[in-house]
Amino acid sequence: MSLLRVSWAAGRDMSRFRSTFERVLEVARRVAASRVVLELDALPDISPYDQAWLATQWMPRAVELPLEQVVIVLSPRRIYNHQVVEGLLFMARPFIHFDVQFFSQSIPALRWISDYSPLVPGLLAEWDAAFGPAGLAPGTGNAAEQRASYGYDQA
Predict the structure, then answer these.
(1) CATH code for residues 3-151
(2) What is the spatial distance between Cα 132 and Cα 9, in angstroms, rounded to a whole number?
(3) Count of beta carbons in the 10 Å neighbourhood of residue 27
(4) pTM (2 decimals)?
(5) What is d(CA 154, CA 100) in angstroms, rounded to the nearest whole number?
(6) What share of the chain is helix, strand, coil (3-state, %, to 5)?
(7) Which end of the chain is more exposed for a tag (fewer CB within 10 A), N or C?
(8) How far apart are CA 17 and CA 44, in angstroms?
(9) Alpha carbon of residue 12 to chain centroid
(10) Using CA of residue 97, residue 37, residue 80, residue 47, what is the dihedral sign?
(11) Nearest to residue 71, comparing CAs of 9, 26, 113?
(12) Banded pLDDT at 120 (limits 50, 70, 90)
């Protein structure tokens, strides 16, 4: 299993949105990622132009990756981007060959996608050392549930 964890860290600056998402594809391809965690909670609202680019340029290449599972981390307060992502997934549904899940918090998502691997605490410590504490989103408490499944697995 090759796991890739991606988190938006550019704040409100969307000037590198496309180049960042291009880089995600490049890294996922290079490491032959089979499982990906996309933490999009900090991503500002995706513009209609970027939505069109995602749908026509990015998604067709993303579905060609050897993915088995993708987790998208978006809290319930990010309604606009949640609807954007669901719309993209709906349009690409005939081509998606992997399982897509939504989680509202990154740590439970990482534990789930790694099948509760004993390596998760080490991965979290490594992430925290590089990027700062990954704790739970403020105000979400300690309970986290897997959100609705969008089981696009056509196998």
Answers:
(1) 3.40.50
(2) 11
(3) 13
(4) 0.81
(5) 12
(6) 45, 15, 40
(7) C
(8) 10
(9) 18
(10) negative
(11) 113
(12) confident
Pair 73, 38: CB distance under 8 Å: yes
User: How far is 134 from 1, CA to CA, in rounded Å?
Assistant: 22
Distance between CA atoms of residues 121 and 87, nearest Å:
34
Give the number of other CB atoms < 10 A from CB of residue 41.
Answer: 18
- Give yes or no for a contact between 97 and 155, defined as CB atoms under 8 angstroms apart: yes
- Pick the closest to residue 150 from 79, 77, 72, 74 (CA basis): 72
Bridge partners (DSSP) listed for residue 100: 70, 150
Cα 8 from Cα 38, distance rounded (Å): 8
Tokens 């880089």 sit on residue: 23
Q: Which two tokens stand for residue 125?
A: 């410590």
Residues 57-91 have pLDDT tens digits of: 999 999 999 999 999 999 989 999 999 999 999 99
Under a CB-based contact definition with an 8 Å cutoff, are residues 27 and 20 in contact?
no
Residue extents of the structural domains in the chain: 3-151
Pair of tokens at residue 93: 């549904």
